[in-house]
Amino acid sequence: MLGMSRREFLLGSAGTLSAFAGGSLIANQANAADLTLPIKTLSHSLLPDTVTDNMMGFGTDGPPPVLRLKQGEAFTIDVVNELDDASIVHWHGLRIDNRMDGVPYLTQQPIEPGEQFRYTLKAPDAGTFWYHPHCNTLEQMARGLTGVMVVEEAEDPGFDQDLPLNIRDFRLAGDGQFTSFFKPRNAARGGTLGTVSTVNWQSEPIYDMPAGSLTRLRLAVTDLTRVGTYDLSKAEAVVIALDSNPLSNPIAPEGIVLSPGQRADIALRVPETEGEIVTLTRRSAKGPKVIAHFRAIGTSSGRSLSELRPLAPNPVPEADLANAEVLDFVFGWSPEGT
Prior knowledge:
This protein is mainly beta. 3% of the residues lie in helices and 38% in strands.
């Protein structure tokens, strides 16, 4: 069962820590899955004073929930399709049983409207991942079907709080409603960018955190198109993992290039002084674009980054290049077929 200790604690933009309370997501019946995850249509406010209709989400009437698994432990999810369109769920980055990978017609049949499918996930690797459909992918993802998944390490690294950041654009007109998801001209030139940048379905949110505490920021770019260079400038912080793989030598959180689907984990020491703010930005031709703010509150807890335990490497075998088999391929073509 998914108990409180397994739920994602979300830091609201108002600065409070609250447990994700989607009761409909929690299975309570005998022989039920650990989690029931409906796919549904919904309306939500992405821009001030507007409500965007015809969005798509997982399970709630807000941002898709952060799903938490334990490294090496089996976890079952019943995905229930409440859309009028076939869908499926792919668990991006997880090395799992191919039957559970969520690719239509290759690993399973699409989940038709009114049907459900039980996924059994047993992730050998810890880290930050994400989940999304692979049916009518452009439209379903553009309407909101992208969520963050966390596989927790066997040993707690020692953070005070853990904040996943679902970073993505939406293509909205000025009235807050969806506009065309792509333009042919842009599709041939690197993709059609969104018009509204969000983090966890909010524009430039402010997250309040205890001063002097240690926070794990999990950046997950679930966008359709945008490639960005991110900076957490003037912060006491280091990048500790990229694409769920721990870094043996952490790097500065500046100039982090992330394309759609990529992730970066940052260890942040929240500023010492109440009211002090650290800002995550993305570079643009017009200057830094604010993605999210992190504000210190209260009396400093006096933590230090040196207190964190290094992340253990994931059990990915290294290639034995010295004994690799050599295969010769000849690539070529001619009108005669030679």
